[in-house]
Amino acid sequence: MGMREQILKFMLQNPEAYYSGEQMAQALNVTRAAIWKHVDALKKMGCEFDSKPNRGYRLLHLPDILKPEILSTYDFSGITKRCAFKVVDSTDSTNELAKQLAFKGAQHPTVVIAEEQTGGKGRMGRVWSSTKGQSLTFSIILRPTMSPIHAGKIGLIAGVSVAHAISDFAGADAKVKWPNDVLVGRKKVCGILTEMCAEYDSIEYLVCGIGVNVNETAFTNELSGIATSLQMETGRTFIRGQLLLTILINFFERYDAWVDTGDFGPVITDYTRLSMLVGKTVTINNHGEKMTGQCIGFDKDGFLVISRDGKRRRIMAGDVGVRSGETYV
Question: N or C: which terminal CB in the chain sees fewer CB atoms within 10 Å?
């Protein structure tokens, strides 16, 4: 843990107390000059302090930024110790940056975070917009020792994890829409994109990109009918770092259980319960070929299963529309 994290953790032990430079220097075994240097750096990052002569500093406010120094102050699970973090102010795509880092040997797991994405992408080359300081956009680098045929399961784990985190953290009723979306109401709040580099029988690395609309208050006309944010749904502003940690905790709890036991059943059960598709008439569009049927669930590999003409069909990929009256989601 770096000195800035230690200073913040120390001051958060009693948020109402004032701490002198001498107190912090003795507690953290550094010089007072080092304390002042790091406090000044924290101020420049956006941390707010109240200072009183002969009493010292009291921490008033932590900024809503996604730097490790701030993230660790919210972490009571140890997830920030397990993961390496790479945080950038702006990038074209966290997935593209994560793939570059993975190619260069980034450890498992590494979380790549951007305050702003200028060229984020979704499935089939679609654009995923990101608003600086309001969205949560990050990618997780994994190096699982498994066959590439299992890679799609990572996206389902991410979807369930995001939906649970949103429900727990924001109190919004989140649902999953196979294969890569999380919705609140009938609008998209999160998109997920999983990419990998693999040999025939093994994965070299896998990147799971997650984008969540958090504190946006409006979208462009093109997106206004299909996108929403947590703030728009609840009327509240959220600290993105706390949501990030909640998602990561949920993700690795399910990922670890699957890797340790080889049993993907609990994820499928959870995914089915959270799905907005089960029991609905759906239309699958796979590169221009359309098929309509009733969604009856998901198989052990996470593929969509529909009933069509009295037969079960297993859908491995495609865009899914849900028919409700005259509308599609």
Answer: N
